[in-house]
Write a structure and sequence with these properties.
The chain contains two helices and 17 strands. By secondary structure, the protein is mainly beta. The chain has two domains: 201 residues, Nucleic acid-binding proteins (OB fold (Dihydrolipoamide Acetyltransferase, E2P)), CATH 2.40.50.140; 58 residues, Ribosomal protein L2, domain 3. The strands form five sheets. The protein has a seven-stranded antiparallel β-sheet with strand order 9-16-10-13-14-15-17, with no helix packed on it. 21% of the residues are buried.
Length: 280
């Protein structure tokens, strides 16, 4: 997906870029049976309390029902269209199965209209878009949409342009290297799709102005230092004072910025190497 930049006719246009949608099938319309209405929660939970700040508004969207399991084993499917999904950065492919059923899948880079894909528990052709158990995929192959538990559906490596690498299969587990750099073990019976998730250039888009972010559902963000003491622990003070605390805190008073938040879980034993911390 190439990113397009316009002439700087306005201040907002000067620093922004847009998606060209060159990899999407022209005039493709979503299948109505595979659409769901999306309720706007505005960052609130079932009690009406804001649990995620700076959310609200945005353009109205329908959720595409994407098949992350692909449990129709040994049934060939043909790619009818490659479509845009407003709920994710990657493209989705409309599959027409041999028995007449239609489903969506997360499309890999290079998947084209007319290609045939298949999902199977057995060994098969190592081809773009095919889905197999990790034990049936050779080491060194890039995969995405990986299951954490067998039969639960793909939960890892689904973002635009991401891919994981199978390093080894030993015993009951397969060792994979995730895009973050983390190396972990996953049950070898978990399913994964061969390839790299489509639309890798999404990270190059510059949104340019506040209006485009509002269309995405993001509201303005304000520093805690410029708030009142009743609104944020960093608030209060005269002029450009410090936050007055030993360590930065979240709005609810918990430690922030660089503090490990991951709780101890049984799955920690499956992590071989943690991801590398990004430098700011």
């Amino acid at each position: 997906m190439p990113v397009k930049r316009y002439k700087p006719t306005t201040p907002g246009r000067r620093i922004s870029s847009v998606d060209t949608f060159a990899d999407v099938t022209p005039k493709a319309k979503p299948v109505k049976k595979l659409l769901k209405s999306k309720k706007q929660m505005a960052g609130r939970n079932n009690q009406g309390k804001i649990t995620v700040r700076h959310r609200g508004g945005g353009a109205k969207r329908h959720v595409r029902v994407v098949d992350f399991k692909r449990e129709k084993f040994d049934v060939p499917a043909k790619v009818a269209e490659v479509q845009y999904d407003p709920g994710r950065g990657a493209r989705i492919a409309l599959l027409h199965y041999a028995d007449g059923e239609k489903r969506y899948m997360v499309a890999p880079i290079g998947l084209k209209v007319g290609d045939e894909v298949m999902s199977s528990r057995k060994k098969g052709e190592i081809k773009l878009g095919n889905r197999f158990a990790l034990e049936n995929i050779p080491a060194g192959i890039g995969v995405y949409n990986i299951e954490i538990e067998p039969g639960k559906g793909g939960q890892m490596v689904r973002g635009a342009g991401t891919t994981a690498q199978i390093m080894a299969v030993e015993g009951k587990n397969a060792t994979i290297k995730l895009p973050s750099g983390e190396v972990r073990m996953v049950p070898k019976t978990c399913m994964a799709t061969i390839g790299q998730t489509s639309n890798p250039d999404r990270r190059l888009i510059r949104w340019g102005k506040a209006g485009r972010m509002r269309h995405r559902g993001f509201r303005p963000t304000v520093r805690g230092k410029v708030m009142n003491p009743c609104d944020h622990p960093h608030g209060g003070g005269e002029a450009a004072n410090s936050i007055g605390l030993k360590h930065p805190k979240t709005p609810t008073g918990k430690p922030a910025l660089g503090v490990k938040t991951r709780r101890k879980k049984p799955s920690d034993a499956l992590i071989i190497a943690r991801r590398k911390k990004k430098r700011r």
